[in-house]
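User: quick one, sequence for these tokens?
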């Protein structure tokens, strides 16, 4: 392959730049495999059985990892934070409000020690409650963070999210 490239491109700096670019494409950080499967379960494996709507909503939300953030988005073509939560719960069989403010009003407060998969986490950004994510367990949550980013899993152990967390709530 390198011989073919050098035959067509005699400039060694161009070749070096191309090789660096190709090498960089394969050097992305590893993805946590627990949250990387965006496809249906293979037919040889039974689909997981969920004991709650919250667990089903988490499964649906986690399947959206990698989908781009889109302001006002509420579909797999793009999500904002509350759109991801709304979409996931709706697909899990429970209708909940669409906006972060409405979700806040419609959620019963849950103590951190009692959080379950599917509970909502409300965050203050720039001094104002304006972000929501969904608890998935083990101090992790799934959310659509902001413009230019994608649906992802984040840790409540990070200083940023610890300081920004206002409360957890369970949808009514």
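Assistant:
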């Amino acid at each position: 392959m390198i011989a073919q490239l050098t035959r067509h491109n005699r400039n060694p700096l161009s070749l070096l730049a191309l090789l660096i670019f190709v090498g960089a494409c394969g050097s992305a950080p590893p993805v946590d495999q627990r949250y990387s499967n965006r496809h249906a379960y293979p037919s040889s494996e039974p689909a997981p059985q969920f004991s709650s709507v919250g667990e089903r909503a988490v499964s649906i939300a986690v399947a959206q990892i990698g989908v781009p953030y889109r302001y006002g988005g509420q579909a797999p073509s793009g999500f904002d934070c509350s759109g991801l939560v709304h979409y996931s719960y709706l697909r899990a069989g429970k209708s909940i409000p669409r906006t972060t403010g409405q979700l806040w009003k419609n959620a019963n407060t849950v103590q951190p020690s009692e959080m379950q998969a599917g509970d909502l986490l409300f965050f203050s950004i720039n001094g104002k409650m304006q972000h929501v994510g969904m608890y998935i367990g083990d101090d992790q949550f799934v959310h659509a963070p902001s413009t230019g980013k994608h649906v992802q899993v984040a840790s409540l152990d990070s200083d940023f999210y610890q300081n920004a967390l206002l409360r957890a709530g369970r949808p009514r």
